[in-house]
Structures are given as structure tokens and as C-alpha cells.
Specification:
about 5% strand, alpha+beta, six-stranded antiparallel beta sheet, about 1500 residues, 51 helices, eight-stranded mixed beta sheet
Amino acid sequence: MYSEWASLSAQITANSCGAQCFSVLNKFPASAGREVVVSVVKQLGTNLGITQNAEPSHLVKDEEVKWCMDVICFGLSLPLQEHETIKDCVNVYCEWLTALHPQPRISVPKPICEDANLYARQIINHFHNLFVPRQGEILPFLYQTTLGADTIKRQAVLCHRVLRTLQQTAQISQLMDRQTWDTLLLFLLAINEILLAPPTVKDDVGDQLCERVLSVLFEVWLLACVRSFPSPSMWKTLQESCAMWRHRVALVDQWNRVNLALTARLLEFSYGPAFPQLKNADEDGQLIPIGMSNDCVAQTWYRFLRMIGNPTALCSPHIISKSSHFVQWALTHEKGAETHQHPCLQQLPQIFLNAMKGISSQVDAFLALPLTSMGAGVELAVARPKCNSILHVFHEWLFEAAHIGGDTWRQNRKKQACEASKRPSSMIMEHRKGSISLSQPNSLNDPQSLPPTLTIDKYESGRAEAIGTLCKIFCAKKTGEEILPVYLARFYMALQQCLKITESRECDETLASILLHSSDLFRLDLDGINVLLPGFIAALEIVLPDKDLKLKTQSMVFNRTELRRSAINILLSIMVLPLHYQTLPIRDLTSETSEKMFTFIQLKSRLMNILMNALQVETDAQNTHMLLGGLLLCVQDAVTFEETELGGGNANLSHNSSGVQHHEANLLSSACSERSASLVSAGTASLGGQTTATMGAGSGSIRDTASAHDYPSLTISDDMSFEFGQELEGVTTYDNAHALFVRATYLVCHRLISSWKTDLNVSLAALELLSGLARLHIRETDTLVKIYEASQNLTIISSDALECKRAVKWICDYICYQCSRPPPAHSKDLHSTIVAAFQCTAAWLMQHPYLLQDKDCLQTVLEVVELGISGTKSQSKGTDIPKFKDEKELKPASMRVRDAAENLLTIILEQVGYFPSECGPESISSLLDELALMKHCNSMVPAAAASSEQAIAKFKYFVTENSTILALLEEPLGNDQDPQPTVTLLIRGPFGRHAWTMQLRHLPRSKSGIKYHAVNPGRPIPMNDVTQRLDCEQKNFPDGVDKVQPCVADYSIPTIEQMREQYGTASIRELESMLENQSIHEKLAWAEADTSADSLSHAQECVPPAVCHEFHAARLFLSHFGFLGFETRNPHNPAEALGNPPQRPLIVLDTKSTAFAADLDRLDKLSARTHDTVYVFYVKSGQTSAQQIIANMAEEQSAGHDPHFASMLQTLGWPVQVSEHSGWTGFAHNSWSLKGTPEEQLKSTANELNYNGSQRVLYWADVSSEIAFVVPTTWNLRYNSDTSDGGSISSTDQISSSNVWARGESESAAVLAKSKSRNLSLELDTNRRDAKEPVPPTRRKGNVTKPTLLAQAPAKIFLVWLESYEDYLNFPLEDVLAYTRTGEELHTLQLPRASDCHVIFVHSLLSGLLRVKLQGPPGRMSFATPLVDGMVLSRRVVGNLVRQTALNISRRRRLDNDNYQPPHVRRRLKVQDIVQKYKMDLSEAELLAHLFQRAI
């Protein structure tokens, strides 16, 4: 930069050497000169005002001043023992320099004040004497060992005084001209040369003043850049001087300090106030003088940056020690030594590291990175410069530093050594101070001559900092930004060199630095980045799988958890690459042959092993969370790949039909399954010697549960190359979808039980992963894994059913363990994990209904349900006597746990194997209500079926168990021609609405279907013969009774004679009369029968009775089902004493109220499932306003969308018509309406992406949740503004606080205290009133006046497609909230806020993969799996994983909400509210009479 300019080094040397010749006293003996100096200076010092008041100087002429200055000049060169005299000289000159100040001191002579610049230059030149070596000294004074430490310290104090005075004068003086500035700068360069150029000696003056003299030089130089910008010659001199001081640590430290201060100012005007400000220390902020122009800042910044030359020269001690001072040390060394062997050079590795850290700090400033960032998950500034711009400045230094100690560097050094060896030895003459270096050129490259502390491996810290800085630069690439190929090539070469793994497989600083700062490297569309994939995988194999990381040196300082997190980030960004690129080869950068060439699919097994092993040893909760998300991504991607790409068959899988057994027919023993699972989970490591593995695959596949309802499959299929099918043959069979499923299930269940159960977030993530695994449809319903071991002749067979059964068993064990923990451990978090485990169990049973056919599995699940509902099991052990439920105290872990267990029980009894019903997945309730049923009733006139009130009047309403409403219709439906007692029921319970029709039949339909109504049945003519009736004497005993020998017992019955004697003849006579009269009456009756028309001789044909059309079917139904069995009072039971009404099995509702129909409709509007809404947005590159983003979904704009966006939408859910949809639509006013209900008809649109909710939405549902995907348009804003109460549920629909929160007022204080001591999520009434009746638990008592509105709004979840990834920083979250109203906001205590929203950003990479960015509110349970921030997805799985993540986010939010009530609890409470409002207090007689009354 300054090659054409002359250096001023010679002038600096001349000033230093000639300073002592300035005084005339040098012509006299030293003793005479000393006496003159002492006398004169002492007199001058008394007038300065230090010890007494200052007086005006008596020196009024120039000659007088010059004479005194000659004396002072000589005094400054006196030996150091004359400290007081030297001190006085310094004080005088420092006072006289105030002539340059705006207000000079009074003691300053008048001539100096009149020509301040001239005298100031002379004074500055005289100050050289204070620093230069004294005459007669061979070495400078700072090396003399005879000087005491006290003398050196006093000398340092004087030097500080001079430096402080000069710096202060430069700051405040307005009189200094250019010559004075140049003199001052040359003087500062000279004294730095004197103090810093020699080799460092600990605690000498140079060591003590090093920081100070450098800071003064740099700060004064910055002042000169403002007042009098130094000439190029001056800058060249500064650069040459700094090159001589590089063995000083302080030089690089001060250089970094000034550079950062200048960079901060440079960023202010280069990128504007919006660019993040670089925060330096307060004192560093004052370095830049006020008034420095922007152009001056830029010029100064670049010159200072280049001031010390290439920092990589610090790695060559031969270069640093080339100065004459080191040569002089080597010549005078006792034993003889090379210049590069001086002890002070042992600081070079640390100096090199500091220089690299300074450069890294500047790069961080340009990227707006915090100075303490580790490179993972840090947001970069949008307005940051391009990577090329930063590399233009720093690439030379960083690339060279990154290669230090690498193969390329060693090859270059050998090449230089060969070239040097061809030249003869020569003497190297240094022109700068006439010194001679006798070094041999060969020694420049001889590593054996270096001390052990300076070998090249000691510079690894600086190398690690350099490569880490390069990684940060390249990770800052923006979407669509181009980086020069030469930079990419050099970067890849440097990375490949640094990623080489040693035989010891240790993690060194370079490897750690790369991993810490390369989290985003594979997410940025960098050209050719995949050539580094094998190297990165090898690095991950060192860091992630081992619990205790092997470190090369224990002095490495970094956070191991952060290192593992960064490595996991890299792993998550490359997991999908093998299945994405398949057989594409990966070329080696350094090898020209194809011997080392890999294909992507060959790396899959290594990636899977890294993931599994990392998950097994990971201890950090956040890292485990990320790994669990990656695991589900891998399994989901493999399953979807085999479904879509392989078309149900695999090239390397052989079908063995003879070994396949149906999973419902035979469940193998758990011992075999555990053995096989352990072999499978160990991967290929379990196969050794002669072991081979084959997999039998069934040709069938589990059909999608929704396929029966014409819903499209939510997957994307791409074409598969033929080569990939062949390549799969070389891949281990343990990496296919089924093997991954088995390994993942086994590993996660084992870790969940063993070590994750105490951590809330990890437990939830594990349970979410298990729920995701349960939903996977492996291609074969029953896969066999056969492992043949020749040595043992052993064959082990495992089936899918066993893996699923074990998973359910493990989850149930997890629930049992959590419930059995001691009371102090019972907290909200613990109960949240139990609730999530119940939900996970439900997912497994719904997707694998055959598990309930297994006796052991069914018993295990039902025992856990019992544990959740009641708090204990009937049989703790198999040998215990079962305890019946009426003998147990109802004491669940918490009400939330009980609710979750009840929900699971209902799913088992009602939904497993039956969902989706004929209504489709959009509803688990019947789609019939009173109005729909009455339309099919014979008695209903079609014209009259106008209102639900009229239809309700035809029904009788009863409530049982205070939670279920029975609506009974006694009229048969129109399609029933058989007059039988028929009743139609509408059952409204906590889990939905169900319709049943029942008939009372005496014969089954198969036998009563043929009816015969002929007039003459064709019976035979009766025979009129009258039978003869023989008269016989009635005998009381058999004939042979007299022959039996009587016994004592026979005499116990008295005879007639004995009775006559005992009771008298009157009684006996009366009895005999009665017998005689009875005989007469019987004979008369027989005679009358014989003569009547109904006798056999006069018999008539039988005629069937008239058909009965009037039935009291409701009474019959209630009676037959036991609802009319009124219990009698037990007078011995205080609970049933008089005054307490007995518990009624039925409560009659009064349906005459006009509000009853509205309340019933509100109950129907309470869904039995959770419902959520995800809003989808498309952001084109550079868009920042809500109006622009919303306008993207207009019909005329849809043509410019990324085609993958439309594909992703189709995989999120099923398109449904709102007018025909009976589930959640994303809007409260039209959700859960019956099909066929007239809706507002809007004009149709041809836009296929129009899912704004006006006509169509995307919908998905399972047995427990619904989710709608809405793509907002301008219609949503108009709709929200026009709808004042968007919800269909008014404030009267909310559950009264007395029903939800209040407890019985009869509780005693003792009972309250006892229940509170359990430290649960609720308070339970533990007072048992009767052993036969379990005590119902009550909910947590809250404030009776608590508002009935929801305390927390439903989670707002946004899915945002980004064309440019950086746009996520400017997404207008607050503005788009207006387009995302559902109508439920009116029932919340606070409206949704932007800070509470969860956003899933999806950015499409050029490779066809998708990058994910998650943004959400800070909190313990904010982020759910399977999506993880920074993950890279395949398009095959994006819809599925986004949907699962949205559902899991909502579930976590509900778990974290103290006031949340599950849907079935809300419905139960609503039923109780209806009972309180409409119940009729009827006695038993009135209830029976009500049953005989017909409905209207």
C-alpha cells in the first residue's frame, strides 16, 4: 500500500541516537554538567507552583530560554540514580508544554508562549533522552540487572508523566501545526521502538510501560488523523515499526481495541442507525476523537487494519525474531542460541490467538453478532454486508490461518525449504540499524530447531478461531446471494483439512470451533457444500455418540453442551440428504480417482447410528428435545419414502409367506420380542461372524383410516430412479422404515422409563414422538425379522404386534411410576406428563386396535385407567385379592389425571376399532338431532317441521348420573312398518351425541319376519266326544301307608281324635262343614261348564286380538334398563335418614321453556374433541406489510407461487366444503353444524388455493382433536369486522362459577387441611361417608366471583412460507392478527397478542428441501416436536410434521393452562347447568305418572 513512499525509520534512528548531542554541556566533564543541571533545574523547579505558589518566569529572551533548555536536555540524560534531578527536568518541560494549551501556565517563559510550536518541537526532541540508553552503556538501561526494582518503577513514573502530558496537550491544543504533529508522532514511534523492539524481559520498564506507550501512540495517532492526517510516509513508518513489536502481547491487544472502536463508527454511517450497534467498553468508546469525518474514519480504519501486516507471520518465530535486537541477544548469549529461541517468543501462540480473536470480533461486528455468541441460533442483521464484501477484506489472513499446521501448509513449507536449500548460505544484512543476522536460511524451515512451546500445534487455538470465523462468514449467506467460487473452493479446502480425524479420535480445538460455528452451513444452498458431508459425519461421530468427549488437550475452554447442540443442529440439517439425493456420488476434493467416492445413500446408516447413540447418552434437556424431533423426522421420512417411492415393494426384501402369522391370531412371547428388539436396536453391531439378516415383508399395507371416506392421501410422491433400487441392496436392512421404527420405539421407551421421567419437556417430547410413531403406517402389517446364527442354530422371530404391545406396556409403566411417586413430587408438571402419557396410550390403541385383543395388554391398559380414575389399582400384585370399586376411596392423583383416564376409557369402549364412523372423521357424534329425526317421523307434518322447539316437544328428556341427557321419542320412524314398542334415543353425554333406535320384540327378526293373516287357518274339526269323568274317593295317603312301621316322628302329628279332644268337637265340626260345602261347589261348577257355549262341544274358532298401536315405549325402556328401580330408605344410614331425599336415578327436564332448545343447541356446539386453527401465509421475497402478504393469496397472484407451496397445502389436511362440513371450520359460528344445514351461499371461485373459510378449508381430525388450516385473504378481515360476536356461544353459555369452581359448603376445616396437605393439582374430599359409595372428588376451589371467560386464549399458530429466509425477521405478526379471528376471542380474558403466537416458518431451498424456523413465546413448554428450529425437511413429510407440531403445540399450551377444562368436562358441566335450570322436582308417583303422559 505504501511501496512507493519513503520510510522515516532512518529519521527516527537519528533522533534517538543524536538526542544526547543536543546540549552544549556534553562538551564538559559529566560531573561539571551535573552540577550545572542541579543548580539551574532546582531554581527553575521552584517557580512551577509545585511546592509553592507559581511565579512568572524570569526568562524573557530567546537566548535565555535556549540556554536553559540546553541544561535541561543534558539533565534528562543523567544516570538513573539522579532521579530527583531528572524529575525536576521533566516537571519543567511538562509545565512549559502548556504553552500549546488555550491557557498557558504563568510560569511558562514569554518566548515559548510567543512561538509555542517551535519550542514544543525542541522539548519533544529533548524528551528522547529520558528513554534512550545512556552513554557508555553497552545495553539499554532496561536490561541492566544492577538497577533495582525501585529505580525502574520511579523511572516508569516519569515516563508516565511525559506520556500523559503529551497526550493531554495533543487533545486540547488548538495551536499545533503539522510539523509539531509530525514531531510528536515520530517521537512516540521512537520511544515505542526503544521500549518495545528489544526482546521482552519480565518486569522491566518496557514490560511495565508497554500498554501505556502503545495506547498513547494509537490515541494520539487517531487525534492526528483528525487534526493533521499523517502522510503516507508516516503510515509506512508506523507499519514497519509495528512489525518490529509483534512479539509484544500488548501490541495486538491495543490494535484490536482501536480496530473495534473504528469499526463501530464505520458501521454507524455505512449501514445506518437501524444496524445493531457494536457495544464496546466505555473507555474504548472515547478512543475516536469527536469531529472525525466519515471519510476519515474509513481511511483510518483500513490503515489501522493493515498496520501489523499479515497475522499469520506470528506463527513463524524466525520472521518475528529477525530484528537487530534479537540478533544482539543471540550474539551475547552465554551458550550461544538462535534468535528464534528467545524465551519471550513463547508468547507468540497467544499473540496469534489474540490477533485472530480481534479479526473475529470485527467479523462479528459486520454480521451484527453478539461478541459472546457461539454461532448457534443467533439472529443476524438483515442489512449485513454480503459475504464477498467481508471476505475481500479478511480472506487472505483467515484462509492462511486456517491452513496453519495442515497438510497444505506442511507441503508449502517443504517446498520453501527445498528452494532454500538450493541456494548457498548467505549473510542477511539488515539495513535498519546496521545489524547483521547470521541465520542460515535452512533454519527458517527447520521445525526441530524450535523449542517445544513453539511447535506448530501450539498455534491451533488461533487456527480454530480463524476457521470458526470463516464458518460464521459463510453461514451469514443470504437467500439468493452469490459467493465467488474461489472463496468457496478455498473454504471447502480449509474445512476438509481441519476436519481430518486423527487416529486417536480426539476432539481438538479446530474441530470444536468448526462445529460450534457451522450450524447453518448445510441450510444455505451453498454450491457444492455436500462434498464436505463425509468429513462432517466423521466429526459428528466423534462428538455425539460418546458420553465423555475425548479432548486433545484439557486446556480447551468451551461449553460441551453448546458443542453438542451445534453438532445436533448440523445433524438435523443433513438427516434427509441420503434419501433425497439417493445414488448421487460425493467426490473427494483431494483425490482425483473415484476410490474414495461415496454415494449419499451409503451414509444413511452412519447418520442413523449417530442419532441413536447420541440420544442414548444425551443429558441436556434441550439437546434431547432436538434429537427426538430428528428421530421422528428420520422414521417418518423413511416410512413415507417407502410408501411413495418404493410402491409397496423393496428390492432387497424377500417375501416369506409361510412364516407370516396374523397379529391377532398369535402374539409371541415377550422374551423373544425383547431379545429381537435388543438385537435390532444395536444395529449392525449386533451382527458378527457368520450372522446374516433378512427381512420378510408382507405385501399388504395398513390402509389409511380416512381412506374409506374418500379423503386423499396426504403424501407427495416423486419418481425414483432405477439406480436407487439397486443401491438399496448394499444398505443394511436395519436402516429401512420398519427397523428404524423398532429401534426408535425401543430406545425412546427405555430412556423414558430410565432417565427422562423427571424432566417435563423431555418427557413430553418423548411421548409426542411415541404418538407420532403410533400413527406411522409401516408398509407391512406383520413384519418378520429372522436372525440366523450358525453357531447356535438360533432363529428369532419378531412381529410388529409385539413391538406395539411392548410400547403400550412401557407407557403404562411410566404412568404407574409417575403416579406412585411420593406426595412432595406431585406437581403440575408431573401431572402434565401423566396426562400426556394417557393421550399417547390412546394414540397407540387407536392406530393398533388389535392390541386390545390381547388379554395381557387389555388388562394392563385397564389397570392404568383404573389407577388414573381412582388413584389405586384393585390388585397391586397378581396374588392380591381384588378390591371392588365400591370398596375403594376415590382418590386420583389429580382431577386432570382423572379426566385423562376417563377419556382413555371412553376411547377404548367407544372408538377403538370404530373410528372413523360412517359420519367420517369430521365427527365422533351422531349427525342426527331432534329436528332431523322428526323429519322422518310419521306424525310430523312436513310443513310443521320448521323449528327445533316443535321437534323437542315430541321428546321426553331425562338426565341420568347428572351427566347424560336422554331424549326419548316414542313414535316409530317413518321407515318402520312393524308396529312394535319402539323408542328412539338421543344420548347427549360428555363424549358426544349418539342416536339409537330400540324395539321390544318377542321374537328375533329372523323368525318374526313372515306374518300369516288368513281368515280360515285350516284347523281340523274338533271332536265333540264328551269324556267320562270317573268319581273316585279322595285319599290323603297312599294305600300301603298302613303297612309301614311307624316311628316316633309319625306320632308327632296328632290324629283327628286327638285334635277333637284338644280343641273340642265344635271346631272339628266346622272344618268338616267347610270341606263338604267346597265339594258341592266344585260339582256345580263342572256341571255349568259342560252346558256352556264355551265348552269343548260348543267350541268356536280363535280370532287374534287387534294389533296394539299404543305403547308407552319410554316407560318400558326405562324400566327394562333399570332407571325406574327406586331405592328404599335405609333408616340405619344417616345419609338416607328422613329429610334427605334418596338419590334419584332419573331427573325429568322441563322442555316447555323457550330457552331449553337454545341451551340444548349450545351443548351440541360444545365439541367432544379439542379444536385448533393454523393460519397459512405466503411471503414473497422482500414483503414486510400484512396487506402485501394477504394479497398474495388473491386469485390473480396465485400463479407466481412456488409450486411446492400448493403441494404442501394438500398434505396438511383434506379440502372440505364449509357448507357441508360438520366439524371445526376455523370459525365458531358455523362449526359443528349438521350436514345439509342451509348456509350462506357465496359465489364460487376457481382459485384452488382458496381455503380462507368462506367456502372451503383444509381439515384434519383424529379421535381426540380437530385442526383447520385457513389461508386468510381480504375476506377474512371483512368478515371479522362485520361479525360483532363471531362465536355462536353467548355469555350465558359459559359454565356458572358455582358449578365449575365452588365446593360444598359443608366441608369442615379439618377436611380441608387434610386434603391440602397432599400437595396435588387439586384438593380432594377424603371424608368417606359410606363404604359402599365412593366419595366423588371435587375440583380446585376457586374464587366464586371468578369470571367465567376463558383465562387463556387458544394458541395462535401460523405457518409461513418464505421465498427469502431473511424475511422472517420482518414478518408483520401484529398486523396479520386481524385476519385470524375465529369468534372465540370474545370469551377470553385477553385478546391474542403477537408475543403469544407460534410461527412455523418454512423456506424452500434450491435443492428441493425445506428449512424450518420456529418462533414462539418464551416459556418452559413453548416449542413442541417433531419440528425443531433449523431442521431441514423433505417435501414428502412437511405436511405431516407441520400438522403434528401444531397439534403438539396446542396440547402443550393446554397442559400449561391451569384453568383449562377438557372438552368432555365442559360438556358435563354444561349438562349440569341445564339440569339446574330445567329440572322438575317430581315425587316417585309424579314421575311414574309423567311416563304415562304423551309428548305433545
